[in-house]
Automatic annotation (TrEMBL):
<dbReference type="Pfam" id="PF01425">
    <property type="entry name" value="Amidase"/>
</dbReference>
<dbReference type="InterPro" id="IPR023631">
    <property type="entry name" value="Amidase_dom"/>
</dbReference>
<dbReference type="InterPro" id="IPR036928">
    <property type="entry name" value="AS_sf"/>
</dbReference>
<protein>
    <submittedName>
        <fullName>Amidase</fullName>
    </submittedName>
</protein>
<feature type="domain" description="Amidase">
    <location>
        <begin position="14"/>
        <end position="382"/>
    </location>
</feature>
<dbReference type="InterPro" id="IPR020556">
    <property type="entry name" value="Amidase_CS"/>
</dbReference>
Length: 388
């Protein structure tokens, strides 16, 4: 196992609501005077150290959080596993011998180990929610663009978000209150949960048995009506008419994320020739081959998901599904990336907030619950989590 920190910082902290809390910063965010490596040695070599903190770091510092170090991330944040080809696998104390989840792997590990109280991370396709599930933590992927990404390395800009991982709901709420931009409008409290049968039926029985009691324990109305039964849902099935709607959403997410990742980094990859681990290398190679027709089809599916979320998740309702399909894979074991993204892609495609919270155990290993609200509903998710 690997230390989650790639650089330690001796910060004094400042007065504020986060005073006394230790902050671990994912190595995608600029930290003044400390190189940003984005999980890849070649990136480190080809970029000068920043002179200013990323906006998210500056906000947390100004609120009193004390930076203790920068943490390992999967390469350019394009993985959900938590295993870096160059820097190793940060420890997951909740599941020894298993990955912590990525790409916010080091931030999750530092918090789970008790080396930090707040782990600043990013979530494009699940990179906060999956580590939270694997490590038994709390985490929030905020509504898209509600937390500044100024000074952070992008992956897929229309999906990228910045949030935090913590060991308890109260600290999560405190930290996110510092990071969130002012809400456009107030949202009604969550009073109803949608636990759709068409999604839950795809979950392994052991995970269903561990996570569903956490849904019921929230004490809210639970509706199991299918999520994808709207005849107006604009999924594109011409190319694959037998593909289930959730899988179509997953494929659309994969195409659009890859397209944006290549737009963001393709020129640097071709000019700098970085060495990537096998998974990241393959994903970038495939991204370079995408066609505009594939992207157009995926965009239509995304529009359908946006409309569906608006219809299925009005104010006061949240989607309740597992944050990951099961517990953390063993180190060296190939994760079922597609199964993971089927659970995380709805929030990403819709730009919606997703809260991950500890739910239960499968063979003594943590699994998490994911609550997704309508865009802008970050505060009501945090209030529901921190209501005791």
């Amino acid at each position: 196992m690997t230390d989650p920190f790639i650089a330690l910082v001796d910060d004094t902290g400042a007065p504020g609501p986060l005073e006394g809390l230790r902050l671990a910063v994912k190595d995608l965010f600029d930290l003044a005077g400390t190189p940003t490596g984005a999980g890849n040695p070649r990136w480190l070599e080809t970029h000068v150290p920043p002179e200013e903190d990323a906006e998210a770091v500056a906000r947390l510092r100004a609120a009193g959080a004390r930076v203790v170090g920068k943490t390992i991330t999967d390469e350019l944040a394009w993985s959900l596993n938590g295993s870096n080809f160059h820097y190793g696998v940060p420890e997951n104390p909740a599941a020894p011998g298993r990955v912590p989840g990525g790409s916010s792997s080091g931030s999750a590990s530092a918090v789970a180990l008790g080396l930090a109280d707040i782990g600043l991370g990013t979530d494009t396709g699940g990179s906060i929610r999956v580590p939270a599930s694997y490590c038994g933590l709390w985490g929030l992927r905020p509504t898209h663009e509600r937390v500044s990404l100024q000074g952070a390395v992008p992956l897929a800009p229309t999906f990228d978000t910045a949030g935090v991982l913590t060991r308890d709901a109260h600290t999560l709420r405190l930290a996110m209150q510092v990071l969130l931009e002012e809400p456009v409008e107030d949202h009604a409290p969550i009073r109803r949960l949608l636990a759709p049968s068409d999604i839950w039926e795809e979950i392994a029985p052991a995970t269903r048995a561990a996570v569903m009691p956490a849904v019921e324990a929230l004490g809210l109305e639970v509706d199991t009506a299918p999520f994808f039964d709207d005849p107006q849902f604009g999924l594109v099935h011409e190319a694959a008419p037998k593909v289930a709607p959730l899988e179509s959403a997953r494929r659309a997410y994969a195409v659009l994320q890859a397209w944006e990742a290549w737009q963001a980094h393709g020129a640097w990859i071709e000019a700098s020739r970085p060495e990537f681990g096998p998974g990241v290398k393959a994903r970038f190679a495939n991204a370079a081959k995408l066609t505009s027709a594939e992207v157009t089809r995926a965009q239509r599916v995304r529009s359908g998901v946006v409309a569906l979320v608006r219809d299925r998740l009005p104010e006061g309702t949240a989607l309740a599904i597992p944050a990951a399909p099961g517990p953390a894979p063993r180190i060296g074991e190939e994760p079922d990336r597609e199964a993971i993204v089927r659970l995380t892609c709805i929030a990403g495609l819709a730009g919606a907030p997703g809260l991950a919270l500890p739910a239960g155990l499968v063979e003594d290993l943590p699994v998490g619950l994911q609550l997704v609200a309508t865009p802008g509903g970050d505060e009501v998710l945090l209030a529901l989590a921190d209501r005791d």
